[in-house]
Design goal:
Largest interface: A-B, 83 and 82 residues
Number of helices of chain B: 8
Order of helices and strands of chain B: HHEEHHEHHHEEH
Distance between the termini of chain A: 53 Å
Strand content of chain B: 5-15%
Radius of gyration of chain A: 21 Å
Order of helices and strands of chain A: HHHHHHEEH
Number of strands of chain A: 2
Oligomer: heterodimer
Shape of chain B: extended
Distance between the termini of chain B: 43 Å
Chain lengths: 175, 174
């Protein structure tokens, strides 16, 4: 029973390590940047899963297959929670609906559509995103034209497009 | 082995139910529907394993597990479900960054002119639908031509404002 409890705690403890390391990096090492702090946090937590599972195994050896199965299960739990955290952090910084909610929250009497657009319009949205994509090397700006730079976001967009077709049945919300 | 196999089997089953239901009739409030489908599958699956363990055989041994075993299965299933729902939220609406990347990629070596971005991605495409989403999700309401935040929306806004302070994020973002 004690082993069962410890195995449940491993991915939760390592997820906490991920969050703490990410927050600390982002707050105290400004040169690191948000994305890098998320990667460092994830790597720290994943290392924690490895180390803790090996440590538990050294005290209570089991069949290798059982060890691998429980290790896989805990890696999946840790990775899934970390993936959700990654998106939560990105929502806080980049999500449109959250930005709109924050603007509405700060205005006590509400905002008309015109006032909303005065604070945050499509131009702001595009400029924010272009800046992030250029800074991360995913697009290049040359001679007043944009070109694809690094492939990562392009691959992500292709995968999301494929998933949309399979699951939702259309490429765009406007189809 | 039981934790991994049972959780993955339940998750795959829930995903298949979700696909079938979406093919028949996609619900209006899709995230709520996903939560109900996945939680329903989890609870039904666990109940079946608990009450009819002899039907579920692994290597000649019926599957049964301790309370903490069920808890571990639930934790794995819920973490996978949360990850899927997070991904699904990104698929429900068109991400401006991904749309921009697709438009640039379509132009290949010719490149995409800056003006084309602003012409193609207007307020009607990027901003207004998201305002209407807030109303649909009961985060805001319209009164006398003003959009006002609801208590539900205010709670969510406070969570993100707090976390932005924790992250020490000063840019307005969005």
């Amino acid at each position: 029973m004690f082993n069962d409890v410890v195995q449940i705690l491993v991915p939760l403890v390592c997820f906490s390590i991920n969050v703490l390391v990410q927050l600390s990096c982002n707050r105290f090492l400004r040169s690191v940047g948000l994305l890098k702090s998320e990667l460092i946090g994830f790597a720290s937590g994943l290392l924690g899963v490895f180390v803790l599972e090996l440590y538990i195994y050294s005290f209570q050896p089991t069949l290798i297959l059982d060890l691998l199965a429980i290790f896989a299960a805990n890696c999946i739990i840790f990775s899934s929670l970390s993936y959700c955290y990654f998106h939560f952090v990105n929502l806080a910084v980049t999500a449109r609906r959250i930005r709109l909610l924050r603007d509405l929250y700060c205005s006590h009497e509400g905002l008309t559509m015109g006032e909303i657009l005065a604070r945050y319009d499509s131009r702001d949205m595009i400029e924010n995103r272009v800046k992030r994509l250029i800074n991360s090397g995913q697009i290049i700006y040359k001679n007043n034209r944009y070109y694809i730079g690094g492939p990562i976001v392009l691959w992500v967009s292709k995968i999301i497009l494929m998933m949309k077709l399979i699951i939702i049945g259309k490429k765009s919300e406007f189809d | 082995m039981i934790v991994l196999s049972v959780s993955l089997a339940l998750f795959i089953s829930a995903f298949i139910f979700h696909l079938i239901i979406w093919r028949i009739a996609k619900p209006k409030k899709q995230t709520k529907a996903l939560i109900k489908i996945f939680l329903g599958t989890l609870l039904t699956g666990l109940a079946l394993i608990y009450w009819f363990p002899s039907f579920f055989i692994s290597e000649g041994v019926s599957i049964s597990t301790t309370f903490f075993g069920y808890f571990h299965i639930t934790l794995l299933f819920i973490s996978l479900t949360l990850a899927y729902i997070t991904t699904y939220s990104g698929m429900e609406v068109d991400s401006p960054s991904l749309v921009m990347i697709q438009k640039i990629a379509e132009k290949g070596t010719e490149g995409l002119c800056e003006k084309k971005f602003y012409d193609a991605l207007t307020d009607n495409i990027l901003v207004k639908p998201r305002v209407f989403d807030l109303i649909r999700d009961e985060m805001a309401y319209l009164k006398d031509e003003k959009y006002i935040i609801t208590p539900k929306g205010a709670r969510l806004a406070r969570i993100f404002l707090f976390y932005r302070k924790l992250l020490n994020v000063t840019v307005k973002g969005g």
